[in-house]
Amino acid sequence: MSKYVGVSVPRVDGVKKVTGAAKYVGDMKWPRMLYAKCVKSPYAHAKILSIDVSAAKAMKGVHDVITGDYYTKRGGLYLEDKNFLAVNTVKFYGEPVVAIAAETPEIAEAACDLVKVEYEPLPVINNPMEGMAKDAILIHPELHTYKVVPIFHPQAHTNISHHHIIRKGDADAAFKYAEEHPDEYYITEHEYHVPHVQHTPIENHVAVAQYEPDGKCTVWASCQSPYAVRQALSASFDIPLNKMRIISPYVGGGFGAKAGTTIEGIIIPLAMHSKGRPVMMEYTREEEFVNSYVRQGLYTKIKTAVRKSDGKFLAVQNNFYWDGGAYTEYGVNIVKASGFASTGPYEFDNVKTDAYCVYTNNPVGGPYRGFGMCEIHFGIEQNIDEVAKEIGMDPIEIRRVNGLAPGKSTGTGEIMKSCGFLEALDQVAEAIQYDKPCDPPSGPHKVRGKGIAGGWKSPSQPTNAGSAAIIRMNEDGTFFLMTSGHDIGQGSDTALTQIAAEVLCCDPSKFTIRTGDTDHTPYEWQTVASRITYCAGNAIKLAAEDLKEKLLDLAQIKLGYIKRELYLEDGWIINRNHPESRMPMSDLALGLAFEDGSGYGGPAIGVGTFTLPNNINYDPATGYSPKPAAFWTTAAAGAEVEIDTETGVIEVKKMVESCDPGHIVNPELYRAQVEGGMMQALGTVLYEELLLKDGKVLNKSFVDYKIPTIDNTPETFVAMGVEHPEETGPFGARGI
Fold first, then answer.
1. pLDDT (tens digit per residue) in 499-542
2. In sequence order, which residues have a C-beta less than 8 Å from that of residue 643 and are 6 or more positions away?
3. Which CATH class is domain 164-197+294-460+616-732?
4. Which end of the chain is more exposed for a tag (fewer CB within 10 A), N or C?
5. Which residues of the chain are modeled with pLDDT < 50?
6. Domain ranges across the chain
7. Beta carbons within 8 Å of 72's beta carbon, 6+ residues apart
């Protein structure tokens, strides 16, 4: 039975955060620091005819002025299509064109006003349907020359940066059969649209870069994935990895917005000219809305064939048209994820999915909480409700008939193993009293209704996405735990500490965790896609087991008993058969010292590395893969909603959700994550939308862009869970 995993221990970062002692990048100050600002494009698409920076350079207090011509090499994580400053053409409204470093932010801002840029406007592509038109202007005419990770497939001489397909069975033949048997089958087709939204983390993007005389470049950044940022910046600026250091201290939320590179690539060239002086850049909230990643807009077309007698799905055809924005260096992976998840948590024998990532002149699309899988469910779940209505079947019953369970197959051909979707569905139905009438409306002209939906998610990551961890025991029996799996608010530092504590049988308070420094903490692919508890957790578990074995090896020499007779408990190594025979673990921190002056064992350090087990890349011709992802987290949610039929105002009165995250490491952190996701879901469905007109962002502040507040919390708001352990997860855990 677990002692530290599965219990709600306090957050290890809680005291520092609530007292204000936690240091974020914006809190850091250096002597002689310079401040950077950018001149940004007033057009969504235009040629740059000329740039005059002479007046800005002459301004007192200005240290450096650079344009895109200074460094024209493209960068990007999956598809190298992005310049940090525009070169020849601007592709989205607000795109940085000129960067200025000055003695104060005010001087840098004033200098920006002195820069003169002459543009020639070009046609604007507003959505993916326009971008896919045969006569559409090409936003990236050189797309066919861009470097790309081989699992992505840009279409030369088009605006399509990736096309992901899934072919299971024969959907065309299945639809033909259904058409020929209308008494037996029903076919429905629907279209859905999901708008762009902003992440709106508490902390805006901020970074500081320093370039030393020996060529060492250090960047302090509010980012989710230090090693991914290091790799991207190293490639973009031809800086060797041993000369590129990324430090990411406390991060005030990310939700995907801080997964890749943003302002870091703008300030590095300025730092190279600053003779060792640090250069800081921090987005304003308005810049955050325009210049950081946005959740991509999505246009969905779904065609479904269903058997009328029992609601069994025969076939589905999904067309997903993703608005990738001006650059899709990260967005292509979201489209890939939407492809292999395109059926939702349901079994179809025949699947035909085409997911497209399309360039437009809208803000740059990137990862957002759920990584594309929440967006596709917006259409999938509404479509299922429509199908159920047309054949006269209860919406929850049609989900029970088709829902995934162990032994059923996904759209890529994977056979599900651990899966609690149907149990979560029933748990939610019971919690909202699905089979009972709604509460009476609160006033005239108001009506109430209940609804239920399913969902699933998995990490979209390369098959070699690795994690590493190091645990060092100190002489007093405390521990340093080192990982680059980053806590950006989700509580992973606490969960990872609990995993180490469970293996070493020591209270979590004895551990200090250090993360986010590529010179000092071991490799972690990225903190994205709900993968840290699973991937970094496995690495930490292996490191703790490595340390445990080393301690037991030393203890059997010291105590004179065979290893299998010894166990760890509360900082002691104890003999199972003779409990009085014991020794403190701390006595072995530096190894063994013998009376003759010799020693053995050395400092007590455990090392763990983890790579995804048995993952297989998909077949590019069919999308088939028996193991496209590390795991699947399934979920169900339910709500009772009241609508004012005169005003159209919608109030969510009750909302419940149940997930199957495997074995829950920390129930309180789990509850907080699920509740946070529920509130964010309310925002994206009822309140939030990035309003765009010809590529320009119209609501780039909280005055006009509304996110839910505590007042919008439903009266009944419950996060639940079912636990079906993941056989490859640390103590059975998956991601949330």
1. 999 999 999 999 999 989 999 999 999 999 999 999 999 999 99
2. 446, 447, 448, 449, 649, 650, 651
3. alpha beta
4. N
5. none
6. 14-21+462-611, 32-122, 164-197+294-460+616-732
7. 83, 87
